[in-house]
Design brief:
Bound molecules: guanosine-5'-diphosphate, magnesium ion
Strand content: 25-35%
Strand order of the largest sheet: 2-3-1-4-5-6
Shape: globular
Number of helices: 6
Distance between the termini: 19 Å
Number of strands: 6
Order of helices and strands: EHEEHEHHEHEH
Radius of gyration: 15 Å
Structural class: alpha/beta
Oligomer: single chain
Length: about 170
């Protein structure tokens, strides 16, 4: 029985919740101050998808995204991508398009989802739902709204990407 391994990169501005999302999905935990484990490039989780065993390797950054210093090794061989922004950070929303271009430059066109995280803080939102929809549509990506804190929709992000990869 073959096991399919998928490298997934998670990009977006600092503090949108990328590391938290990986930790939530792979370890089932959430903390206010998650620090990347030194020496670990990715965490993994195995799921069953359309009757296939899929091993998802979720690649984290060590904060290099904040000074635009993500290396080619991070993107190399990625088969799927999460473009993440935060409900409470307008700059992170406006950066989504440029993150998509960076990933495409290194990886070509791969299954990609836009994640609007921190929807538990919707009363402090800095984005309008309509403009988020318009952006997702114009980039041709599915939009998934998550709260990593409350564990809302996180599984769906990775199930969607695995399903898309199996279709290719
Ligand atoms: P990264 O820089 O993108 O990796 O972001 P982190 O994972 O380090 O998260 C930045 C901060 O946002 C941390 O304090 C997290 O606890 C917090 N955070 C992450 N996801 C959520 C969420 O869904 N809701 C809320 N309220 N806080 C979150
Ligand atoms: Mg991080």
């Amino acid at each position: 029985d073959l096991e399919i391994a998928l490298k997934v990169v998670i990009v977006g501005n600092g503090a949108v919740g990328k590391s938290s999302m990986i930790q939530r999905y792979c370890r089932g935990t959430f903390t206010r101050d998650y620090k990347k484990t030194i020496g670990v490039d990715f965490l993994e989780r195995q799921i069953e998808c359309n009757g296939e065993d899929v091993r998802l390797m979720l690649w984290d950054t060590a904060g290099q995204e904040e000074f635009d210093a993500i290396t080619k090794a991070y993107y190399r061989g990625a088969q799927a991508c999460v473009l993440a922004f935060s409900t409470t950070d307008r700059d992170s929303f406006e950066a989504i398009h440029s993150w998509k271009i960076k990933v495409e430059d290194e990886c070509g066109k791969i299954p990609t989802v836009i994640v609007q995280n921190k929807v538990d803080l919707i009363e402090r939102s800095q984005v309008d739902p309509q403009e988020v929809d318009i952006l997702a549509r114009s980039l041709g990506c599915k939009l998934i709204c998550t709260s990593v804190k409350d564990d809302v929709n996180v599984n769906n992000v990775f199930r969607f990407l695995a399903t898309r990869c199996l279709m290719e």
